[in-house]
Design a protein that fits this description.
- It is built from 2 helices and 8 strands; from the N terminus they run H-E-E-E-E-E-E-H-E-E.
- With about 180 residues, the chain is mainly beta.
- It has a single domain (about 35-175), classed as Jelly Rolls, CATH 2.60.120.
- The chain is globular and about 45 Å long.
């Protein structure tokens, strides 16, 4: 004998069963609240050739970035950098997806940065937090209508050469996985 609950019984005493034929499953990024953490750290890389790149982290296009913190020592006396998304590719050599500057565009590296949230530094606003990466790319100008199911790298690109090559930078990313 089945178990009946009050929301499945009509007011006149006749049972009304309208159970869905397929189970309703929330997207993984919203169904569980496990916030995950990635950290990228580099010191003294030869970032003197434009456009050198540092692939900081890999995400799925269904992941949801909540916060993106930057910390740097500010030793260079000149230099600009972009921070944005590229396709991962086979050997983390994939092409640029949009402009490659979704988070930072020509950010001047001459001053120290002490753990500043850069999520809404360029293309995004606070209300975009929690959107999937592919939805963020739509906000930035991409024309996706559904998840492209890509592996995506967060990439730091040098716009203008640094004057001092000994530079320390940290990036911390808080996100929920959309697996």
């Amino acid at each position: 004998m089945g178990q009946w609950y009050s929301d499945l019984i009509s007011g006149n005493g006749e049972s009304v069963i309208t159970l869905p034929t397929t189970p309703k499953i929330n997207p993984a990024g919203r169904a569980h609240g496990r916030v995950r953490y990635k950290r990228a750290h580099f010191v003294g890389l030869p970032l003197d050739v434009v456009p050198d790149q540092v692939r900081l982290a890999t995400f799925k296009s269904s992941d949801r970035i909540l916060e993106l913190f930057q910390t740097m020592d500010g030793l260079p006396s000149a230099g600009n950098q972009d921070l944005g998304f590229y396709e991962s590719g086979v050997n983390h050599d994939g092409p640029i997806i949009n402009n490659g500057d979704e988070f930072l565009d020509a950010f001047v590296v001459t001053g120290a940065v002490a753990r500043v949230d850069k999520f809404d530094g360029n293309d995004f606003a606070d209300e975009d937090r929690g959107k999937t990466i592919w939805e963020l790319l739509v906000v930035a100008g991409q024309t996706y209508t559904e998840d492209p199911l890509l592996n995506i790298d967060l990439v730091l690109t040098i716009d203008t050469s640094y004057t001092v090559l000994v530079n320390t930078e940290d990036y911390e990313m808080f996100y929920t996985a959309g697996d």
